[in-house]
Recover the amino acids of this structure.
């Protein structure tokens, strides 16, 4: 059973990081499309964010199951650091993507600035996820 949970955990980690790399070309193309194609690219971006969000939920649940059934206690330094970064990235995901995308269709919004924020947010989120990935794979003793 533990091996299955590890597989689900790793697969959900891939699904929570991988689609973000599709976000960059979508954002780049969105800068130069006409209004008729704009909604299609925004739909792709919304789907990517949904996949990342739901994969993150599976990642958290499988991570909790791994801590409960595995050999590492929850108070291990790398587990605590991973949890802290996970909470930070959860807040960051909701404010950095969802709220920014809601502003996209407002009449007074600067679409170029919003796309720049989305691109920067994507790279920051990828960085946070890679730090968590490093913590989970390397399991460093931080304190």
């Amino acid at each position: 059973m533990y091996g299955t949970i590890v597989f689900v955990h790793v697969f959900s980690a891939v699904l929570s990081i991988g689609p973000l790399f599709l976000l960059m070309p979508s954002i780049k193309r969105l800068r130069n499309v006409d209004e008729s194609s704009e909604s299609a690219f925004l739909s792709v971006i919304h789907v990517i964010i949904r996949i990342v969000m739901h994969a993150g939920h599976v990642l958290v649940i499988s991570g909790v199951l791994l801590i409960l059934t595995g050999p590492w206690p929850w108070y291990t330094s790398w587990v605590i650091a991973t949890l802290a970064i996970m909470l930070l990235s959860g807040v960051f995901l909701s404010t950095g993507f969802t709220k920014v995308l809601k502003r996209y269709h407002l009449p007074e919004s600067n679409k170029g600035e919003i796309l720049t924020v989305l691109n920067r947010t994507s790279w920051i989120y990828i960085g946070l996820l890679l730090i968590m990935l490093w913590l989970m794979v390397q399991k460093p003793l931080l304190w």
